[in-house]
Amino acid sequence: MTRLRSHREGHLVGRIGWLRAAVLGANDGIVSTASLITGVAAAAATQNDILIAGVAGLVAGAMSMAAGEYVSVSSQSDTEEADLARERKELSANPASELDELANIYATRGVTHKLKANGNMRLFDATLDAVAMAPDGALVFTNFVEFDQEFGHRRDVPGYAAALEDFDRRLPQLIAQLRDDDLLVLTADHGNDPTWRGSDHTREQVPILCFSPSLSQGEVGIRPSLSDIGESVARWLGLDPGPHGRSFL
Questions:
Q1: Rounded Cα distance, 97 and 195, in Å
Q2: What are phi and psi of 110, to 5 degrees?
Q3: Domain segments of the chain: what residues?
Q4: Is the domain defined by 112-218 classed in CATH 3.40.720.10?
Q5: How many angstroms separate the most distant Cα atoms in the chain?
Q6: For 11-62, how does the pLDDT look when each residue is reduced to its tens digit (9 = 90+)?
């Protein structure tokens, strides 16, 4: 077990509210004061009168506008904090619905299609459909959640074994659809051994199986991070490498 020593950190972001208010308030005050001085000067006032009117206008204008801006920024911050608290509560009470909501958000940010299906075999059917219509450079991602949800956590060994056999029988269909420049990656985000005691995740080392008609046989070895898979896929798609992970292709 690792224990982190708690310490106080000072961040400039805590000052952003009053700093923004001061800058915007001073800017508005200067503009308003310039107009006021122009009007006073046009009335043939003395130099002292112009100076007094300018200082008074600058202080009053900047203070009032800065105060209004600060209240506005604080109200916005309070509203954002309330929304964050509400989202945390929703995540705790109904994570499945929140996951669907997140998927809908990402559907407009690069994820062009979302195919829903219940059960591993229907998910496999949806995967075959997605691969068939995927253009060059596309990424198809399928989460066969029953392995984890229905069999792993419930420690259902016969069910897990049958699900693996069903998946293996369908795998040649997917391989037959692959073109020479396609890459298939089979992996998991964690282990869930159905023969282990309890119902939690097990075995953090997971398999990585890759296949392409254009790949020769080889081993990827034991990788230090799942990010290596991301880097490998990025390289296969011709993307620039990221800050994490190392390609094994």
A1: 30
A2: 105, -25
A3: 13-93, 112-218
A4: yes
A5: 98
A6: 444 555 556 666 665 566 565 655 555 655 555 566 676 666 666 666 666 6
